[in-house]
Design brief:
Chain lengths: 95, 417
């Protein structure tokens, strides 16, 4: 089980959190102008990174807030967590 | 290839079993092949076998980054069934079941296919309605599926508890009698041996590091840890690592890779006659011929390539197993492990050409790829050889996520997640 450092509450067990998928996917502002390719990209295509992955988590059984985490998907080690809206920290995967 | 038979077995026995040779060669990679398959799991090896046997492509290679049978093929819970709701899925999975029924004879290797029946339990009124709909839909597609009352369920599978005090009591079950299990390692080894007998080169410890394309974008070669190999056709069957391989050709995939866990108990005498699945309380279980109870858990919440998952996932499954089968409560679990499964948004696979000329992909089998192994390989071989899909896998295109023609087994809940 992951030990996830919530930026608001500190380190807590994974069972307190729900996973929110890949981070930094901006909702399209003008959906009427969206092409089929654009909609496919927004809804379904994912980087599915092997290595350092930016992802959303929600502290569902805690503060209830969304935040982002940088996790190496090969080792599952979490390198950083940061608040929604903040830029992705510059960290490289070690594996 | 040494032909296996009762006579051959007796002859080797009198020779002290000293005369068994390698089951497949360990060749050096050639400079070029007519087709190269990435991934030496069941799907990749079956693809190579059918390419050689049915389409006459003999100058081909299978690249495996580890060893044969070391990935998801050797990590799953070996359940085989075809009771899917939608026509496209039912045709796909029943194509596989029909090939399973003759596979041991076809490849002269005992894959221990056992049609012991799969029970899918209903625990709520909604389950009952959904599974009855499945039974009818399956019958219209010529796939056997019966509805059983709780008493019939217990007669078919005596260890099951019908206690009315259960949080989710058993209200009935759908039973596919042609469904069952097979020995997963034997499937990988049998296909490897059979493909090798047609001259297919199986290259183990050979990871793909890049895909070479010409000016027009067509595949010309694949770079590996054992050198560059020229090929006009590259067929990817890399399960959880499909996104990584396809990114080498600049393609983004509608896939996410999750850990899926399974576990086995200590071996015991035969007690469990069939396969039982419960989607609602999330457990599935059967007994291997070695005597271990084989138990499947769910996927972890997050994407990962670590081939392991968290204990609370398996614990949750064991809660359900202990409630359904109180007789197993004092058993000890022997081993637990994870595999990385690639999941599509609609939970149906992709067997298709791609927008890159000469690049084909067979992926997205999610939590249930083993059951499709022969059918998947058979149809993928057709697609690669003829450069067009077979009628059965034509609906399983990549483009369905763009134009919306999904095969939404996720919403149909015909598969366990």
């Amino acid at each position: 089980m992951l030990l996830i450092p919530c930026p608001f509450c500190g380190p807590r067990a994974e069972v307190e959190f729900s996973y929110g998928g890949e981070a930094h996917i901006a909702r399209v502002e003008n959906q009427a102008a969206l092409t089929d390719e654009g909609l496919e990209d927004f809804l379904y295509l994912r980087s599915n990174t092997r290595g350092m992955h930016a992802e959303r988590w929600r502290h569902a059984h805690g503060c209830g807030r969304f935040f982002n985490a940088l996790r190496d998907t090969v080792t599952d080690k979490i390198y950083a967590t940061y608040k929604t809206g903040e830029p992705r920290p510059a960290l490289d995967a070690t594996s | 290839m040494q032909k296996f038979s009762a006579f051959a077995l007796a002859r080797r026995a009198f020779g002290g079993h000293a005369g068994w040779g390698r089951q497949w060669r360990a060749p050096e990679p050639k400079a070029a092949y007519d087709a190269v398959i990435v991934g030496g799991g069941g799907h990749g090896l079956a693809t190579a076998y059918y390419l050689a046997k049915e389409h006459g492509l003999r100058n081909i290679a299978v690249l495996e980054k580890g060893w044969i049978g070391g990935g998801n093929t050797g990590r799953n819970t070996t359940i085989i069934r075809s009771n899917y709701l939608f026509d496209a899925s039912a045709a796909l999975y029943d194509h596989a079941v029909k090939l399973w029924e003759k596979l041991s004879q076809d490849i002269n290797y005992n894959v221990m296919f056992s049609q012991r029946g799969v029970l899918m339990l209903a625990h709520t009124v909604h389950d009952v309605q959904v599974f009855k709909r499945h039974v009818h839909a399956n019958r219209l597609n010529g796939i056997d599926n019966d509805w059983l009352s709780p008493e019939d369920v217990q007669a078919f599978c005596p260890p099951i508890s019908l206690a009315p005090t259960m949080r989710y009591p058993v209200l009935g079950a759908a039973l596919q009698r042609r469904a069952g299990t097979a020995r997963h390692d034997a499937v990988a080894w049998g296909y490897a041996r059979a493909a090798d007998s047609y001259g297919v080169d199986i290259l183990e410890n050979c990871a793909v590091t890049g895909i070479v394309q010409d000016a027009a974008g067509a595949v010309t070669a694949v770079e590996t840890t054992r050198g560059t190999i020229r090929t006009p056709k590259l067929a990817v069957a890399a399960a959880g690592n499909t996104s990584v391989i396809m990114a080498m050709a600049g393609l983004r995939m509608p896939l996410e890779s999750y850990p899926l866990q399974a576990l086995v108990s200590e071996p015991i005498k035969p007690i469990f006659p069939c396969v039982v699945m419960s989607n609602t309380i999330h457990a599935y279980i059967s007994q291997s011929d070695k005597g271990e109870l084989v138990i499947g858990a769910g996927t972890d919440a997050y994407i990962s390539y670590s081939q392991r998952g968290a204990l609370h996932i398996t614990t949750h499954t064991l809660d359900a197993i202990c409630e359904l089968f109180p007789i197993f409560r004092r058993m000890r679990m022997l081993r637990n492990w994870g595999g990385i499964v690639d999941v599509t948004p609609d939970r149906s696979p992709i067997i298709a050409k791609t927008s890159v000329k000469g690049l084909y992909v067979n992926c997205g089998w999610g939590t249930g790829g083993f059951k499709a192994t022969p059918g998947s390989g058979n149809l993928f071989a057709w697609t690669v050889a003829k450069d067009e899909p077979h009628a059965i896998n034509a609906p399983f295109r990549i483009e369905r996520f763009r134009d919306g023609h999904m095969i939404d087994e996720a919403a149909a809940a015909a598969v366990a997640h």
